[in-house]
Write a structure and sequence with these properties.
The protein is of the alpha/beta class and 847 residues long. It folds into five domains: 122 residues, Rossmann fold; 136 residues, Histidine-containing Protein, Chain: A; 117 residues, Glucose Oxidase, domain 1 (3-Layer(bba) Sandwich); 113 residues, Orthogonal Bundle (Enzyme I, Chain A, domain 2), CATH 1.10.274; 300 residues, TIM Barrel. 43% of the residues lie in helices and 14% in strands. The protein has 33 helices and 24 strands. The chain has an eight-stranded mixed β-sheet. It has an eight-stranded parallel β-barrel with strand order 17-18-19-20-21-22-23-24, surrounded by five helices. A hairpin with a 7-residue loop joins strand 6 and strand 7. Helix 2 packs across helix 3, helix 8 packs antiparallel against helix 10 and helix 11 crosses helix 17. The longest helix has 29 residues. The radius of gyration is 32 Å and the shape is globular. The protein starts with 11 loop residues before the first strand and ends in a 9-residue tail after the last helix. The structure holds phosphoenolpyruvate (PEP) and magnesium ion. Phosphoenolpyruvate binds next to strand 18 and helix 28. InterPro entries: DhaM_N, HPr-like, HPr-like_sf, PEP-util_enz_mobile_dom, PEP-utilizing_PTS_enzyme, PEP_util_AS, PEP_util_C, PEP_util_CS. It is found in: Cytoplasm. Keywords: Cytoplasm, Kinase, Magnesium, Metal-binding, Phosphotransferase system, Sugar transport, Transferase, Transport.
Length: 847
């Protein structure tokens, strides 16, 4: 049973009733269940003033004709004369239409609902009628009035191996009508034979594609069910089912229609305390442990005690600032050892707040004007700065408010001379907070803390970046309901699925403990094999490279198994300083990075500033829309001296190292040729650098469409899917409210990838991909199938991507890519990939 394409006809439904209101009400209910694709017409009541009860054959005939198609029409009626009117209407129809119309004895309401669900999936007319006639079975089964329906299981592909999937149904009302309809819908994409049984009631197997059969199994919350699939796409169907079950068959998590059994209600917020909460994925993985909650007394709400003379207050503040400065420097140093330098530099921003001359002048003046003591004036000053940030149009800059508040709060604590009841560095288990301050994440002990969850917070915050770099499973933005959890209670963090379960039950815990073990084993294996080349099962090679922003990361990349650097974001050499590094300084950096790679290739991307990466000392001028402004290569082409110094530094370093050059944000062939000419000019003084391969990033849709022209002079391309997604969907990449438009797995984006690889390969050029998508192990078979030759990603992703490549078969991946290109949404592509991942599971294996 496959949901037909929108233009293929489906069975239409006509609802005949004595009452116009009743007919319309039933139609409304059926539409809700069948979706907008199902055609439903009504013939209720009679013409006349007011509401005239009765039925009219002509009206029934017109209703049938209004939606007639070769798929046929099913007519459902209420009582008495409704049947006669329908029979008469049949006589009034043209003879060739008549045989495609069935009058159905099904109960009106239940029959219409079931018929709509079946019609939706292109079920033939007679089968829709048969299902509608059995529509009372569910109710009868529930009330004990009839034998449970025993629909013979659908044939599927006989003789093909069977796979099974077991799980406990967690929906509040079990597999009631709505979840059962969603089950039908999800299965419509697959051709596999599918049966179902209720293990808890030890029922017989029934056809899982019959809504009546599913509903009559009486599956209630907590019941264990088993799906049995056979046929070519049986594995994929079961995986889709698993995902559906995990999402509670579409019932809202934690809502009345879903969730785990309620384990003790609490008066707090009058809401159930157990069940799933969904949020934003920050760092993937599974964690189970006792909650360590951080929502306690808000220090900033405290008032100041005794206020001394202004000079004493100012001294007090100086001491507090000094203490916090020392703490920040310690945190920064400790983090540089645990994470990378770039991450540690987040705390440079904190130091800048503590030393901000304007802020300190304001505080000094207000303390000396008698506006308050050190505590209250500092608190006001910090709020003032935070408010200024709040009004900025840039999402990324706005999310820096957390840094200012964080450091501001630390000064207040220092002024009071006390600290939190249990400092974050002594915490263990799963930390739960309203919002994490970056300093809290930096100070925590990554060996003791298993997971992080927060009621608020965005993926681009510094706290999120830190959590990712520490590799701790984390989900933010879970909502205020998170506060229902109390110290020591069990939390289950399924960060990969961006959700957290409060008070999970035994069965769920056991399931997740298994999953966590498998995940750990996979990670360990990937780590052991990280230095080995990653060939696909059929011997196809894709290069795995690293994205770096600092020279030190080149060493880390080699240690992590990188076969080179596919993207050196050189702009990071230009940040956190007062002026640009000169040619010599850059030369040293590039040479150092190349040395660390010990002969592996190094792709140096020229300066990519502007947009979300402004360079304060090189003012690009005020722009209403910096993401569409003078950024990337455009910026370099108008800052020639700066650009030439960088190109010379690269050419010098390339004399004795396998260095390649790459330009960012190329929109036209003219820009590309201009940049290339400047490179050639710079390289002229270093003849040995003339062999250097020069390529460009494809991150603006115009470059995709120009690829055949660009290929004439380019040695290679690298797809910057972060920006390409942003510009393709006109959705700013850092804006958390547009996250749904920033999915690089969208088929529209995949079409762009396919076009680039096809055109480039036809002209003998290779194609890399260095956006975040490259580090997503799930996407690996798809990218291989689309013909990408090199994947470049952040260092922590390298081992797992190599492992995903080893599991992949390039021939099969090409088929998968073709399927993905014909999908209509990113969600469809994700389901397809989830099915692919499931394909590795052995037939007959139980879950
Ligand atoms: C990209 O846009 O995909 C890319 C890799 O560049 P950046 O993230 O540095 O803009
Ligand atoms: Mg980019």
């Amino acid at each position: 049973m496959t949901e037909p394409h929108d233009n293929s006809p489906r069975v239409g439904l006509v609802i005949v009733s004595h009452s116009r209101l009743l007919a319309e009400g039933v139609a409304e209910l059926a539409r809700e269940m069948g979706g907008p694709g199902v055609q439903i017409a009504t013939a209720g009541g009679m013409d006349g003033p007011g509401s005239v009860l009765g039925t009219d054959a002509l009206r029934v005939m017109k209703a049938i004709e209004s939606l007639y198609s070769e798929a046929g029409v099913l007519v459902l009626m209420d009582l008495g004369s409704a049947v006669m009117s329908a029979e008469l209407a049949l006589d009034l129809l043209p003879p060739d239409h008549r045989e495609n119309v069935l009058l159905c004895s099904a109960p009106l309401v239940e029959g219409a609902v079931v018929a709509a669900v079946q019609a939706r999936f292109g079920t033939p007319l007679r089968q829709v009628a048969a299902e509608a006639c059995g529509a009372l079975m569910a109710k009868q089964g529930q009330l004990g009035g009839a034998e449970a329906l025993q629909t013979p299981p659908s044939a599927g592909i006989r003789g093909s191996p069977e796979m099974t999937l077991r799980f406990v149904v967690l929906n509040h009302q079990g597999l009631h009508a709505r979840p059962a309809a969603r089950l039908m819908q999800a299965m419509s994409r697959f051709s596999a034979g599918l049966r179902l049984r209720n293990l808890t009631t030890q029922s017989q197997e029934v056809d899982a594609r019959s809504i009546n059969a599913v509903m009559t199994l009486g599956v209630q919350q907590g019941h264990e069910v088993e799906f049995i699939a056979n046929g070519e796409d049986g594995g994929a169907a079961l995986e889709a089912l698993r995902l559906l079950a995990e999402s509670h068959f579409g019932d809202a998590p934690g809502g009345a229609g879903a969730g785990m059994p309620l384990q003790g209600r609490t008066p707090l917020h009058e809401a159930p305390r157990s069940g799933w909460l969904t949020g934003t994925l920050i760092s993937p993985g599974i964690a189970i442990g006792p909650a360590s909650v951080l929502w306690q007394e808000d220090e900033t709400a405290l008032e100041e005690d005794d206020v001394g003379l202004p000079s004493q207050e100012w001294d007090r503040l100086q001491q507090a600032l000094q203490r916090v400065r020392t703490e920040v420097l310690e945190t920064r140093a400790a983090l540089a050892l645990r994470a990378d330098h770039q991450t540690a530099e987040i705390f440079d921003a904190h130091l800048l707040v503590l030393e901000d001359a304007e802020l300190l002048r304001w505080v000094y003046e207000h303390i000396h004007q008698g506006a308050g003591g050190a505590f209250s004036v500092w608190k006001d000053a910090v709020e003032r700065v935070a408010r200024r940030y709040e009004s900025l149009p840039d999402e990324y800059l706005r999310s820096r408010i957390a840094d200012i508040q964080d450091v501001g709060r630390q000064v207040l604590l220092a002024l009071r001379g006390d600290a939190r009841a249990a400092p974050v560095e002594q915490r263990a288990g799963i930390l739960a907070a309203l919002d994490f301050a970056p300093s809290e994440i930096a100070r925590l002990d990554a060996k003791r803390v298993q997971g992080l969850c927060a009621a608020r917070g965005a993926a681009s915050s510094h706290a999120a970046i830190l959590a990712r770099s520490l590799g701790i499973p984390a989900v933010f933005g879970l909502g205020e309901e998170l506060q229902q959890i109390r110290e020591g209670e069990t939390l289950l963090v399924d960060a990969t699925a961006a959700r957290v379960c409060l008070l999970p039950d035994e069965a769920l815990l056991a399931e997740y403990e298994d999953r966590a073990r498998v995940e750990l084993k996979t990670r360990q294996l990937a780590h052991q094999l990280r230095a080995k080349a990653a060939l696909t099962r059929d011997g196809h090679r894709v290069e795995v490279a690293a994205n770096i922003g600092q020279v030190a990361e080149a060493r880390a990349a080699v240690e992590a198994g990188a076969e080179g650097v596919g993207l050196f974001r050189t702009e990071f050499l230009f940040f956190q300083r007062a002026s640009a590094p000169d040619e010599d300084e850059q030369y040293e950096a590039y040479r150092e990075a190349a040395r660390a790679l010990e002969g592996r290739p190094l792709i140096i991307r020229t300066l990519d500033v502007g947009g979300d990466k402004p360079l304060p000392y090189l003012d690009a001028g005020q722009e209403a829309n910096p993401f569409l402004g003078v950024r990337g290569l455009r910026f370099c082409l108008v800052n020639r001296e700066l650009f030439s110094a960088q190109l010379r530094a690269i050419a010098r370093a390339a004399v004795d190292a396998p260095i390649r050059v790459m330009f960012p944000m190329v929109a036209t062939r003219e820009e590309w040729l201009e940049a290339r000419a400047l490179w050639e000019e710079a390289a002229q003084s270093f003849p040995a650098a003339r062999h250097v391969e020069v390529g460009l990033m494809i991150e603006i849709p115009s470059a995709v469409l120009l690829v055949q022209h660009l290929a004439a002079e380019a040695s290679f391309f690298s797809l910057g899917t972060n920006d390409l997604t942003q510009y393709l969907f006109a959705a700013e990449r850092g804006n958390e409210r547009l996250a749904h438009l920033s999915d690089a797995l969208h088929p529209a984006l995949l079409q762009m990838v396919a076009r680039v690889t096809e055109e480039a390969h036809a002209r003998g050029r290779w194609v890399g991909l260095c956006g975040e998508l490259a580090g997503d192990a799930l996407a690996v078979p798809l990218l291989v199938g689309l013909g990408v030759d090199e994947l470049s990603m952040s260092v922590p992703a390298i081992a797992s991507v190599k492992q995903a490549l080893r599991a992949c078969h390039a021939g099969e991946a090409r088929v998968l890519a073709r399927q993905a290109l014909s999908c209509g949404s990113a969600a469809e592509v994700r389901r397809l990939l989830a099915g692919e991942a499931f394909g590795e599971i052995l037939p007959g294996m139980r879950h």
